[in-house]
Amino acid sequence: MTTLKRYKMTVAYDGTDYFGWQVQQGCASVAQTLQDSFARVFNKTIKLYAASRTDAGVHALGQTAVFSVDIDITTADMIRAWTNVLPPAIVIRSIEVVAPDCNVHQNIITKTYWYHFFTMRPLPFTQRYGWYYRHTVDMAKLQQCLEVFVGTHDFRSFSTGDDRGTDTIRRIDKVGVEFVPEYNVYRITISGPKFLKYMIRRIVGACIEVASRKNLDVAVLRQVLDAKNPEHILPNAPAKGLVLYQIEYDVVR
Questions:
Q1: Residue 205's domain is classified under what CATH number?
Q2: Is 62 helix (H, G, I), strand (E, B) or coil?
Q3: What is the CATH number of the domain that holds 15?
Q4: Are residues 70 and 120 in the same domain?
Q5: 3-state DSSP helix/strand/coil % of the chain, to nearest 5
Q6: Residue 79 three-state SS
Q7: Are residues 34 and 119 in the same domain?
Q8: Rounded CA separation 13/72 (Å)
Q9: Helix (H, G, I), strand (E, B), or coil: what is residue 59?
Q10: What pLDDT sits at residue 26?
Q11: Which residues carry out catalysis?
Q12: In the predicted model, is pLDDT for residue 136 greater than 80?
């Protein structure tokens, strides 16, 4: 009799054509695509539990998820067979056997996200992975804007606004912006243990807006943050520029 095993996988995907990670009725999602393809290959049903529910249009290089299945196969053969039926937009980077109670939401040290934006019209091959922002951005000011959010704060002003009564206190450990010459793109890096829905995109949109307007001071961001009110006029950055880069754990299981 085959023993039920718990597996942890790392997966990368281009989220352009998906309505996010989470399974949704009548919509193409990354999780549904993975589950359906597994069933076709192995004639087994699995349910994936991911560390992050990326939104529609958001990409990933290091999404992690767990599933359990009773199957007698090596992880190398599982990856090989599973990959053969996956669309090019989804790549399984690794699979390992873990403890039966492994939970990808526990023991997280940090999640690192990238946000990419272009200041010049991008090439067709890269445009779907970044926001083309047509106004001049003061990069030194942008760094100052991002640093407003470092530390532990109530991020209600940068949430969806649909989370009344829930905990909106989060911690950002590190932020930065750099130019990546091979793609002619600017990359914002944000790291922390946990984020609210739309939080990063709302922060990025607000920071880029302030950094591109001489009549707006960095202090505006502090005022909006302190107001704890998501109904402000600062913009939300498009999903296409966001990438879940990496999730680090303090326990390898």
A1: 3.30.70.660
A2: strand
A3: 3.30.70.580
A4: no
A5: 25, 30, 45
A6: helix
A7: no
A8: 27
A9: strand
A10: 86
A11: 55
A12: yes
